[in-house]
Structures are given as structure tokens and as C-alpha cells.
Amino acid sequence: MKTQQDTAVFLLRIALASGFLSAVASRLNLWGTQSSGWKKFVDYTAETNSFLPQSWASIIAVLSTATELSIGILLFVGYQVKGTARCASILTLFFATAMSISFGIKEPLDYSVFAFSAGAFLLSTFSRYQWSLDQFLQQ
After folding, report:
1. Distance separating alpha carbons of residues 11 and 8, to the nearest angstrom
2. Which of 37, 64, 94, 108 would you label with 116, given CA atoms 20 to 30 Å apart?
3. Which segments cross the bilayer (predicted)?
């Protein structure tokens, strides 16, 4: 049973990391023609945060991208997983809330943003992270 839980925790960590890293890769045109690109992301940031001044969109886009890149890398290598997962949960909950305010509840539900946030929160509740840098450093 413990092995199944270890495997599930590992897969959750890698899935969350991949989600963050894929989003950043799309903004930076690393997915080729399937990329959203930076300009579209800044425009989407302004739409998602429609309750804030539009002039803030570029700053929010840069800060969120840097945060998502950091979270993605830290989760992928398994360093400071508990705290990083907690940050991921809070960030995605803010994103889901902004989406709900600007577009209605359907959008964050369709894109599973609340599920992503809950998964990150669940990841933050475990006491050990098999196959992670955290585990290696504890030995």
C-alpha cells in the first residue's frame, strides 16, 4: 500500500510540475505553432484580471511566469516539495478566483483550475516524497 501511495505522490508531483512548465513553455514559444506566445499571454492576463488596472498586466504576467517556472522546476526535481506545493495551491487558487470574477465559474471549472489547486494542496500534506531531491538530501 505504501508503494502505491509513494507512486501516486510522485506522479502528482510530476503532473503538477509538467503543467506549470508547459504553460511557461507556451508563453515563450517553445511549443512551436501550438504556443500561445507572450503577447497573447499578456492580453489574457489583462482579461483574467479585468478588475485590476490594465497597466498591471505586464507586471502580473512576468511575476506569474517567474513564479510558475520556479514552482515547476522545484516540483520536478522534488526540492522543498511541501512548501512549493503549498505555494502552487495558493497561486492556482488565486488564478481560479480571478478567472471566476472575470469570466464566470464555468471557465475555471472547464480548465480544472480548482482541481489543480486541490491537487497541489493535497501534495503539500504528505510527510515524505519518494524519488525526490528532498529524500536524497535527508539521507
Report:
1. 5
2. 37
3. 56-77, 84-105
Average pLDDT, stretch 93-115?
A: 98
pLDDT at 100 over 80: yes
Q: To the nearest 5 percent, what fractions of the chain are helix, strand and coil?
A: 80, 0, 20
Q: How far apart are CA 118 and CA 40, in angstroms?
A: 27
Residue 71 · residue 14 · CB < 8 Å: no
- pLDDT(1) > 80: no
Q: Which residues contact 82 (CB under 8 A, 6 or more apart)?
A: 124, 126, 129
Where do we find the cell 515524505?
128
> Phi/psi class of residue 10: alpha, beta or left (left: φ > 0; alpha: ψ in -120 to 50)?
alpha
pLDDT at 2 (0 to 100): 81
C-alpha–C-alpha distance, residues 61 and 40, integer Å: 11
CA distance 20 to 120: 11
Residue 41, φ and ψ in degrees, nearest 5: -65, -45
